[in-house]
Design brief:
The protein is an alpha+beta fold and 621 residues long. The protein folds into two domains: 159 residues, Alpha-Beta Complex (Penicillin-binding protein 2a (Domain 2)); 387 residues, 3-Layer(aba) Sandwich (Beta-lactamase), CATH 3.40.710.10. The chain is built from 22 helices and 23 strands. Strands 2, 3, 4, 5, 10, 18 and 19 form a seven-stranded mixed beta sheet that branches. 40% of the residues are buried. The model has no long low-confidence stretch (mean pLDDT 88).
Length: 621
């Protein structure tokens, strides 16, 4: 009896399993349901939505749309045609026709794909009347980007056709469709692109379209892309680009209270309209091959420079935090700092305080190398070993976001570099290294590398007395403020807040004191705190650097400016920085002569010399 019941139970169990599986397949799972995509008598047509607009922080439209038209192909529907006539109409060669046809057939014989993209309105008007002659081809309306203000190309990015790698990863896109390639267009692609609509058209046995498939029950409407508001002030951005004309470098401005990026300049730049339409590929190639100015290289995010004297601010704060100096600690400057027995082991100083005792405030506004070399030496030697001292120093530096990715929402970036004890142990495995070996770190030279955005963020941290928000470019999506945790979470450095005020006062004196290194860049009525810098360049003239924030109390803008081959920080970077601050805070500038000098000034001769020096070095090697 027991065996009989077991058999009954087994049969019942198997039956229940079959019923459950059939219920799942037929009712719950849609995978095996009839789909118009699996029906050879159905044509698929996509309705592409307009891409979302992009606005600046003040509501100014900076990216719009314009109509465009694609020639589409369904390879299996193509009938014999006059190829030469068709190529003449499309302004392409016969070889291109053959290549495009083969590519579309490999993709899919029956699914429409782009044969020729981005026709102009005039081309469309001309072709529209003749397309009936070419079976298997039709015209589909699209939208392309348009830039009313020819600015911020490196920030906004551009759109282009999806590549094969992405097609394999993401089933949403079809061959020939457009996608954000870099910048804001890439980072916020999902919001900007919208959702394309799909129409399924029934065909009869003669392959003629006879109406919607199943009365359009599978059809969907296109959904317009969402508008995006970014944090840029486009007027400030354009103004800074004009100031950086005929110069190379990067400029980044940040709102300290929020981490919002106000300006992000890479110079030389380009008109973003160049990367739109049928000329996009040709223009991109031209920009890409321009090795002299390299406009597609974003110097604000990718260029790594020694920070130079602005880094002295960090060493001052570390010295105060570690208790190796106070605001009243004096160091005597004798034209530089001697750090070894050799006559060459001497760091020159140009502060003009020969034989004088220099304290913190004066050390900052006169940018005394000797003062900061002594401070750095005390930091490294404050621990039992140089290795331990270096680790303390390096950890403090990294707490300012240096030597690491800032985890922002920009489409590219590099880490920069902050050396630590492990690095020097590898570099000098048999040598007892110490403060003297690494003394270049005292003045922002040596192995330290920073990007303009890192230095701007460091400046915002000082302005905020040790706290900061991750720099970011997004402000609103669909007119709704964005609250992303990593951009709204307050971060702190390892330096206590009480050590910032004396350093900030020193930075104020850089601009305000008649003997300060940036006194000639001061702006009447605005309390600017700054620090000049000159970064050594082994290939040519040194780089000009300036960091600043303003006003001194309740700062609204923090900025970092790098001008390649610009020599002293006060020569180019200082005036550009303070002109931008004046423009942003006051809405106008009242220093026409200085402004004119920056607008018209060119450093092309210095770049030519640098290129020549680099060429000679290669020949020598």
């Amino acid at each position: 009896m027991e065996k009989k019941y077991i058999a009954y139970f087994s049969i019942l169990l198997v039956g229940l399993l079959f019923i459950s599986r059939l219920f799942y397949i037929q009712i719950i799972n849609t995978k095996y349901q009839p789909s118009p995509l699996n029906n050879s008598a159905v044509a698929v047509k996509y309705d592409y939505p307009e891409r979302g607009f992009i606005y600046d922080r003040n509501g100014i439209l900076i990216v719009a749309n314009q109509p465009s038209y694609d020639i589409m192909i369904v390879p299996r529907d193509v009938k014999p045609l006059d190829t030469l006539e068709f190529c003449s109409l499309l302004k392409i060669k016969k070889e291109d026709f053959i290549k495009k046809y083969k590519k579309s057939r490999i993709y899919s014989p029956r699914i429409p794909s782009v044969f020729l993209a981005q026709l102009s309105k005039s081309d469309y008007a001309y072709l529209q009347e003749k397309m009936y002659k070419y079976k298997g081809f039709f015209i589909q309306k699209r939208t392309l980007r348009q830039y009313p203000i020819k600015s911020a190309g490196n920030v906004l990015g551009y759109i282009g056709e999806v590549n094969n790698a992405l097609l394999e990863k993401n089933s949403y896109y079809q061959q020939g469709e457009l996608i954000g390639i870099n910048g804001v267009e890439k980072q916020y692609e999902k919001a900007l692109r919208g959702i394309k609509g799909v129409k399924f058209i029934q065909r009869n046995r003669f392959n003629k379209e006879i109406g919607p498939y199943k009365d359009g029950i599978y059809d969907t409407l296109a959904i317009h892309g969402k508008d995006v508001t970014i944090t840029l002030d486009i007027k400030l951005q354009k103004y800074a680009e004009d100031l950086m004309l005929n110069k190379r470098g990067g400029v980044v401005a940040i709102e300290p209270s929020s981490g919002e990026i106000l300006a992000l300049i890479s110079s030389p730049t380009y008109d973003p309209n160049l990367l739109v339409g049928r000329e996009r590929s040709k223009n991109y190639t031209k920009l890409y091959l321009d090795e002299d100015s390299n406009p597609l290289y974003d110097r604000s995010l990718l260029a790594q420079y020694p920070p130079g004297s602005p880094f002295k601010i960090i060493n001052a704060l570390i010295g105060l935090q570690e208790g190796v100096i106070t605001t009243e600690t004096p160091f005597y400057c004798r034209g530089g700092f001697k750090y070894g027995r050799s006559s060459k082991a001497f760091m020159k100083c140009h502060c003009g305080t020969l034989g004088s005792a220099v304290k913190l405030n004066r050390g900052i506004y006169k940018s005394c190398n000797s003062y900061f070399a002594n401070t750095y030496k005390r930091i490294i030697e404050s621990q039992t070993t140089s290795s331990e001292g270096m680790k303390v120093w390096s950890d403090h530096v990294k707490s300012f976001g240096l030597g690491n990715f800032l985890n922002n929402d920009l489409s590219t970036g590099v880490k920069g570099y902050v050396p630590d004890d492990k690095f020097y142990n590898r570099m000098y495995p048999t040598f007892k290294w110490g403060a003297s070996t690494t003394i270049s770190n005292a003045i922002g030279q040596g192995e330290i590398l920073t990007t303009p955005i890192q230095l701007a963020n460091m400046t915002a941290i000082v302005a905020n007395k040790g706290i900061y928000y991750t720099p970011h470019i997004i402000k609103k999506i669909d007119n709704k403020p964005i609250k992303i945790d990593k951009f709204t979470t307050l971060k702190r450095t390892s330096i206590k807040p009480e050590y910032f005020p004396p350093v900030i006062e020193g930075m104020f004196q850089v601009v305000e004191n008649p003997r300060g290194t940036a006194h000639w860049s001061r702006v009447k009525g605005i309390e600017i705190c700054g620090k000049t810098g000159t970064a050594e360049n082994s290939h040519g003239q040194d780089h000009s650097i300036f960091i600043a924030f303003a006003p001194k109390d309740n700062p609204k803008i923090a900025i970092a400016v790098f001008v390649e081959n610009g020599y002293w920080g006060s020569r180019w970077a200082g005036p550009i920085s303070t002109l931008m601050i004046e423009k942003y805070l006051n809405g106008e500038t009242k220093r026409p002569l200085k402004e004119k000098k920056m607008f018209e000034g060119s450093l092309q001769d210095e770049y030519d010399k640098q290129l020549l020096n680099q060429a000679l070095e290669k020949e020598t090697k």
